[in-house]
Amino acid sequence: MALGLSACSQSTKPPTPLDRTPVTNGAPPSVDMGTIGNGEDPGTTSPPDGFLVDCCDVTFKLPDADGPGASEVSAVLRGAFYPLNTPDGVALTYANGAWTGVACMPMTYSGIYYYDVVVNDSAGGTYSDYRANPFAPSAVDETLGTVNTFSPVTSCSDASLTLYSTVM
To answer: What is the model's pLDDT at position 105?
Structure first.
């Protein structure tokens, strides 16, 4: 896993939290993101225009729950605060039995995250299945169920950053 201190900058302020009204095409569930994680309003935790924030490139992995030939179509990492609360989240790719993605996580990030996995159903449609990595730190959220948790670090060489990419 490559970890390195980098300056993440944002040319425009990320949007405020998504309207979490469920829709049929795989949108996230209805969640008041201001009441989970550390309880702060996610819109105020995003870096302002041109602000540099110390962040670490962190690899996140979700083990394949269904095994080879599964019906999973795509996966996105989502969370309560920037950079995981953007409309697109962090896209994941599938390889070697796991969904994997990298996000430049602010060193002060303290909150929840989850994996939004789009799955084919038996009727030919798709649905979103919200999952947590069972090998990473977790908690139970009233709306989402089991979610993963991310804790602040003092350095990009902090050994705890490897927890988020553990798959067994």
So the answer is: 93
